[in-house]
Amino acid sequence: MTTRTQDGSAGDADYGAIGAGYSAYRRPDPRITQAIADALGGVRHVLNVGAGTGSYESAAPTVTAVEPSESMRAQRPAGLARAVDAVAENLPFPDGEFDGAMTLFSVHQWSDATAGLREMRRVTRGPVVVLTCAPERVRDFWLYAYAPEVLDTEARRYPPVEDLTDALGGTATIRTVPVPLDCTDGFNEAYYGRPEMLLEPGARQACSAWSFVDDEVLERFDRTLRDDLASGAWDRRFGHLRTQPTYEGALVVVQAVP
């Protein structure tokens, strides 16, 4: 049985506590939108599970959104349809209801990813698209030198991509999604060339992994990164990233078709 917080959040992160400023930092990036749209292949009616504030719903003509967190549902723009209050593991739809389905930056937070993905496949006739991170690549990011606890947390939370494809069945395609230098969606790797952004508490709060580490980790990260930026140590080691147009890290899109 899925356990939910007072806010309704059904995964391991409590968005009632951390989600208040999410939409200010997590704005959909058009290039990532295009990668999602390409994976959906032009299908019309798409289910979005763990829809949050509605980012990337422009990737499909018609979207039915599912989001258990009251805080996240409240941040959905007025032009989007109201999200259904439900969890991935128990979708309130009949078999084959949708042309396609997607879950974006969400599957790692579910209490049972396999059950949730099987539910998505049950209610979907066509492609199921998962935007996620490959856990074996998470620690390759420069942040590991400053806050390894954060990326260790991320690596533990993200299911192996092969587990996702096994749960979905059918034929799967996995593609790395290049992250642009000026990415507007503020997940950790979005700041690969803008390290100063992760000194903003709001930017960190919009990435759920930071909520799993204690104040000592946060203080050490803030102090050491500030010192290295001031001394030039960060730029001597990672400064080439400031002008690198894209970063191919852990972000992947998985497309599974029956």
Please write out the topology.
Layout: H1 15-18, H2 22-25, H3 30-40, E1 45-49, E2 62-66, H4 70-74, E3 100-104, H5 113-122, E4 128-133, H6 148-157, H7 161-168, E5 171-176, E6 179-180, H8 201-205, H9 215-231, H10 233-238, E7 246-247, E8 251-257
Helix pairs in contact: 5-7
Summarize the structure.
With 258 residues, this protein is of the alpha/beta class.
What does this structure look like?
- With 258 residues, the chain is an alpha/beta fold.
- The chain is built from ten helices and eight strands.
- The strands form two sheets. The protein has a six-stranded mixed β-sheet with strand order 2-1-3-4-8-5, with helices on both faces.
- It is globular.
- The protein starts with 14 loop residues before the first helix and ends with a strand.
Write down the oligomeric state. Answer: single chain
Strand order of the largest sheet: 2-1-3-4-8-5
In helices, the fraction of residues equals 25-40%
What is the average per-residue confidence, as pLDDT, rounded to a whole number?
92
Main sheet properties: 6 strands, mixed
The separation of the N and C termini measures: 28 Å
How many runs of DSSP E, i.e. beta strands?
Answer: 8
Run of helices and strands: HHHEEHEHEHHEEHHHEE
Supply Rg: 18 Å
- In one word, what is the shape? globular
Amount of beta strand: 5-15%
Ranges where pLDDT stays below 50 over 5 or more residues in a row are 4-9
Structural class: alpha/beta
Number of helices: 10
